[in-house]
Amino acid sequence: MIARILAIAVGYLFGLFQTSYILGKMHGIDIREKGSGNAGTTNALRTMGAKAGLIVLLGDILKAVAAYLVGRFLISLLAPPLAPILGLYAGIGCILGHCFPFYMGFRGGKGIASIAGIVLVFSWKLFLIGIVVFIIIFLITHYVSLASLLATFSFLVAAIVLGLMGRLPVPMALYPEMCVLIGVIVAIAWFQHRENIGRLLTKTERKTYLSKKNKS
Cβ(26)–Cβ(80) under 8 Å? Predict the structure, then answer.
C-alpha cells in the first residue's frame, strides 16, 4: 500500500509541470483566460498556434512518461511484485496533478496528452488502438473532445480483452487491479470532459480543423 500511495504522490508532482500554463506565461498570457479556458493542448493550439500546441502536447506526454518510468522502475524497489502496475499508479498521480494543480487553484488541463503518454509506455498495443480510434473519429467529426473520449474508452476495452489474452505486461494476478486503474484513468478523462459532453449532446461543441482557419 505504501508503494502505491508513494507512486501516486510522486506522479502528482510530475503532473504539476503545466506546459501550456508555463508557455502561456512566456507569451504574456494566462492560458486559462483565453479560448476555452482549459490549460491543455487544444486550447494552446487555438490560442497560440500550431507550434505552441505541439510543444504542449509533447511536454504533457513526456512528463507522464517520466512519471510512469519512475513508478515502474524506482518506486517498485519497495514492492517488486507490484512493478508492472506501479507505473499506472504514478500515471494516475500525474493525471491528477495535471488536471488539479494546487498552485493553479486546481484548474489544469483535461489530461488526454498525459494519458496518451502513460498508455504509450505501458503498452504500445493499447496506444496504437487509441491513436487509430482518435484519428478516425476526429477526421470524421472534427470534434477533439469526442475523439478523446472514445479513444480513452478504447483503452479500457482493449486492456480488458488483451489482458485476458495475456498480451499485456501484467500477470493475471494483477489483471483485476490493472483493469480498475485503467478504468480510473478513463473516468478522470470523462469527468474532465463533462462540459464537452453536454455541448456534444446539444450540438454546440466547437470543431477543430488542422488548418490556419479554425471554423466554429
Answer: no
Domain spans of the chain, in order of start = 2-201
Q: How far is CA 1 from the centre of its chain?
A: 24
Which residue, among 96, 137, 95, 87, has the nearest Cα to 116 in the 3D structure?
95
Query: Any long-range contacts for 100-106 (C-beta under 8 Å, 24+ apart)?
Result: 101/15, 101/16, 101/18, 102/16, 103/16, 104/18, 104/21, 104/32, 104/39
Tell me the pLDDT of the chain (216 aa) as tens digits: 899 999 999 999 999 999 999 998 888 888 888 887 788 888 888 888 888 889 999 999 999 999 999 999 999 999 999 999 999 999 999 999 999 999 888 988 999 999 999 999 999 999 999 999 999 999 999 999 999 999 999 999 999 999 999 999 999 999 999 999 999 999 999 999 999 999 999 999 988 887 655 454
